[in-house]
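Entry type: protein chain
Record version: 2
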Amino acid sequence: MPPAGEASEACVDCMSDKFKRRNQRRPGSFGARRKQQLVPIESIKPLPIGKAEIAALAAMSVVAVALIALIWIVTARSVADQRAQVRDRAEQFAQGQVAVMAETIGHEILMVDQSLSILQSAWQQQKEIFDLRTWRQNMPALTKVASDLFIADDKHIIQQDIMPQAVGQGVGAAYASSLNGALQRLQSDGTDNKEAALLAGRTGDGFDAREFLMYVVRPLAQPKGWLIGASYRSAEVTRLFAHAALGINPVLALIDTRRGQVQAVVGPAARHPKLDVSRSPLYSLIGRSASGVWTGETPIDGVQRILAFQTIPGRDMAVVLGVSLAEAMTLARETASISYTVAAVATGLVVIIAGLVFGVIYNRRNHKRRLRELSRNRSELERLRGNEAVNLAKVQLGAAQIRALFDNVSEGAQHYSARSIYSVRHRER
C-alpha cells in the first residue's frame, strides 16, 4: 500500500481536477465571465429639424425680409417725396421771382410807351419847334431806362436824336453794328459804378450782363410814315437779379417771343450765349403758355436748370429765370444720404436680430441633443451599475463556493488521512 502522505496528495489532485472540469462545464462560472466584453454605447444621431423649428425659421426669414423690404420702400418713398418737395419749393421760388421781374419790366416798357405817347402828342402840336434834347431834360425817368430817343422819317432815317452823332443814320444801325450785344461786368448790387459799390461796402465778385438794343416805337401823324422811338434797356432787371439770391450759376434772359432771339441775358451764361433759341423745347413751351416751369438744359448755355418763364402782357417778350438744378437739389441729396444711412443701419439691426433668433433656435436643437445624450448616458450608466451589482454578487457567490469547496476538501483529506492511518495500524496488529 502507498504511504499515507502520497494517498492524501493523490486525493487532493483528483478532487482539484474534478473541480476544474466542473468549473469549465458551468456556463456562469467566473472563468467564463472573464471573457465577456462591454458593448459600446451607440452613437447619438443628430436630431432632425422638426416642423415647429422649420416653421419658426421660415417665419423669421419672412419677417426679416419683409422688414428689410419695408425699410427700403419707405426710405425710397421718403427720399422721392423730399426731392419732390425741394424741387417744388425751387420751382415756386423761381416762379415768384420771374413774375416780379416780368411785372417790373412790363412797367418799365409801359413807362417808355407812355413817355413816347406824350412826345407824340407834343410833336403833333408843335412839330416846328419840337426838340428831343429839350424833352430829355424834362423826362429823367425815361432816360433812365432808354439809352436813345429818336425821330425817323418814312425811310427810317433818323432826323432827330438825343445823340447828335446818330442823326442821318438808319434806325437799327447801332443794332447791326453790335450783333452780339454789349457785355458788361456789373457789381454785386447790379450797377456798373465801382466807386459807389466800394463806398457802400459791397465788394462781391459781381456778374456779367449782355444786353441788345430793343426799340419801342410809335407812329407820328405828320409827316406820313414818320415815327418816334426809344431804345429800351432795363436797369431794374439787373438790380432784381443781384438781390434775388439765386445761388450759383443762375441765369436771367429776355426772349423775343416772335423770333426766338435772346434780347438780354444776365449771369455766367452772358459770356458765351447762344442767341437763337427758336428750336428749343423751352421756346415751344413759351409759345403755348403765358407762364410756367420747365426743367432741363438751358438753351442759352446748355446747363441743367429749373427754368421759370413769364410773358409780358401786350409785348412780344418773355422773361426767363433759371436756377441751377444741382444746387437746388443739394438739400435733397444730403437728406437722401442721411435717409439711406439710417436705412442701412436699420437693415443691419434686422439682420443681427434675425441672426440672434437663428442662433437661439440652433442652440435649442443642440440643447435637446445634449439632453438626449445625457439621458442615454444615464440609462447606460444605470444598466452598467446593475450589471456590476449582479457580477459582484456572482463573484462573491463563486468565492464563497470556492472557500466552501476548499474547506470540504481539507476536511475530506483529514478524514481520509485518519482512516488510512487507522487501517494501517489495524493491519500492523
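Comment: The chain is about 55% helix and 15% strand.
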